[in-house]
Every structure is written in structure tokens, then in C-alpha cells.
Write a structure and sequence with these properties.
eight-stranded mixed sheet, 457 residues, alpha+beta, 31% helix, single chain, globular, 22 strands
Length: 457
Amino acid sequence: MYDVIIIGAGPGGIFSAYEFATKRPDLKIAIFETGSPLEQRKCPIDGKMVKSCIRCKTCAIMSGFGGAGAFSDGKYNITNDFGGTLHEYIGKEKALELMEYVDKINTENGGENTKLYSTAGSQFKKICMQNRLTLLDASVRHLGTDINYVVLENLYRKISGNKNIQFFFNTPVRFLEVIESGYRVHYGDAFQDCKKCIISVGRSGSKWMEKICDDLDIHTKSNRVDIGVRVELPAVIFSHLTDQLYESKILYRTKKFEDRVRTFCMNPNGIVVNENTNGIVTVNGHSFEGEEMKTENTNFALLVSKHFSEPFEDSNGYGESIAMLSNMLGGGVIVQRFGDLERGRRSNKKRLEESTVRPTLQATPGDLSLVLPKRILDGIIEMIYALDKIAPGTANDDTLLYGVEVKFYNMEVELDENLETKHKGLYVIGDGSGVTHSLSHASASGVYVAQKIMDEI
């Protein structure tokens, strides 16, 4: 009988475990993770023998210790303005307090020499407003993919150093059962029992989470899905923004449909990468703190948020169908020059070779207008021209667009102010809850629940 079982070793699960390891080392904890330990997480794409996604059974980029954020560019946004709705459950002051606490832990475990950026008082807010754009406020700790890895190594060392904490790697949980003394966690042909259970399965566990909620009669409501492209252009075009702000969250409301388009996950001097979510290949971006790893390009996502009303509820299914169409046409990710998109023609190998922007991801030249719905594509094109006014060169012909990028959000699980379900002692945290959508919010939710459990035990 474990005191606590944590399902998922992403940011939420890690910070819960870290709290237990440092504050209550006497508690008996088990952590189940469908992926591998950090040092064993290796994507087979090497650019030589393996040049594109081979759809591994368990994606090393998405699963394993550190979760999908392990190989991200390690941006921790300290704000309630975006990244989730954690503050609606625990209060704005508490949410910010916990995000700052997470930042302190990161800087004490290898991130001490990284920079904390802030948009507060930036002159770019006025420039954005003058061009129908909105720059959101945030403090941003950029660890970089390389330093983020070091921080995760140090956190793992401290957690696993506790003899009362046991990791079960490459061990997907099949289902949960409510028992008289707590919960029974089934995996393979075996099971383990616990008094309290924390579910932290991330976005990649969305389908599993839906099944658990159905099994345990936990109410959920439909969330949104974000669909768009990843833009790659010369770093100098956005350098005046990224040098000062690093991560600029910019919103735009389209003229025609009044849809909301936003920038997301900006990676100065970074690279574009593949992601495999439930067997579907999408695109993302990384950046690094070390100078030797930096490239001549900057990349960021342009995403259009879609919310659905009755009778349609499967927002993730909608996003998946668009991503599957991209996979069908391009065998994975499609890349297109902005000039070709505007001229209504497919990009080909010759046009890409003649482009002044050298792609950092080997993708299939194609036509995104055959994949993305017109309304979404029109919004992205509008946004590119709006950004061109504050960063001239964004709308250049050679700007590259990779598609598709999809941000899946879990069905929002019905939780109380303790992030606890209707079943006493069963908590849902991180992106798997549909409440948090970022590293900082997910980590803060993990700390919050661990503290609640320690108060009770």
C-alpha cells in the first residue's frame, strides 16, 4: 500500500514528487510513466539513416521523465494571463506564488545562470496596439532545451535518491479502480494500491484520461483545440523583439471572422522539430541556451483557437483529422514558402533550395491550402501581414510555414478548489486536467496538490 501513486512523470508529476521527496521523505510513493528514464529518451531521427518520423510505439519526444516539456525550449511563463486557468481554482495570488516557487527550484537545480525576461513596461506594447495587435504581460524564465535537461537530471537525482520513492518506467497504466482503502492502479497483469492517487498524464494522455473519466463517472466538458502552422524566418527579423522579451505572446483578432490568432512558443535561433501524438505527426520548435547550438533562424507558431458548441464535442478529433490529412499528403509534416502559398502553388524542392531561409527540419514540400480549412488559413495569412508591420520581413516570400501544428487540450475534468475529483483522494493535475497548458502552470499544480496531500497525511 503506497501513500501516493503518481501517474505520469511530466512537470506536474515531477514537482509533486519533488515536494514529497524534500518535505515528507517518509511517505511511500510510486511513479508510473509510460515512457523511459531521461537518459534513455532518444528520438531515432538522426538526419542520416533516419530522416523522418517512424512513428515509434512510444514517442521519446512526448513521453518519459520530463514529459513533452523535456525537450522543449524550457520556457516558464510566470503569469495568469495565459498558460491555463489554474488561478480560477486556487486564486491568482496563490497561482503566481507557486509559479515563482517553481522558478526558484529550477534556478537552484541548474538554471541559476539563465535569464528572466519581462514584458512589463515594454515599448512594444504601444507598437502592437497601433497595429491591431496585443502583447500579453508575463515574466519568462528561459532555460533552453540544454539547461532544461540539466535541471531535470538534478530533480530526478534528488527524487530517486529517496529510498521510499519508486519509479515504474515503460509501464503504462491500463485503468484505475476505486477500492475501500483508496485506489488500485492496474498495469500489465499486475496492480498496486495507494491511499491517494495523482493523475498527471499530459496532453498525450488525453484519450486515456477520457476513458478514466468515463469509467469513474467523472464529469468533463469540451475544451478547445488550436490549429495552425510553425513559422520559420531569419532570426534578425524578430531580433528587436526576442533580444528584449525573448517570448512575445501576441494576439490578433482577424478582420473578416474576428477569430483569435496568437503567437506561441517562440524560439529565437532555434530549430523546428517533429512531434508524434497518438501516432499523428505534427510540428513544434525548440531553442537552446548554449551559443554552440543556436541557428540563424527563429521559429514560432501561429495558432487559431477553435471552440465548439453542441452537438459537436470532439475538438481534439477535429484537430487530429486535419493533422492526419497533412500526414496523408506529405507523409508527415508539410513545408511551404509563404510566397508560394500566396500565389496558390505548391512549394517544391527547387523553390526551397533557392530560398534564402534554410529549413531546420526536413519536411515534405507541399501546399498547406489543401490541408488547413480556409477560415483558419485566412486568419494565419492576416496575422503574418499584421506581424510584418512590427517586424518587417515576416511576410517575405521565403518565410517558411510548416504544417500542421496542433495543440490538443484535454477535456476539462470537473475538479474542486483542491484539484480533487468527486472521488476523495483522486487528483488530476497538469495538462491532462484540461486546466493547465504550460510548464509553469502544470508544475505549480503539482506543488499545490502535493502540499494539500501532506496537510492531510
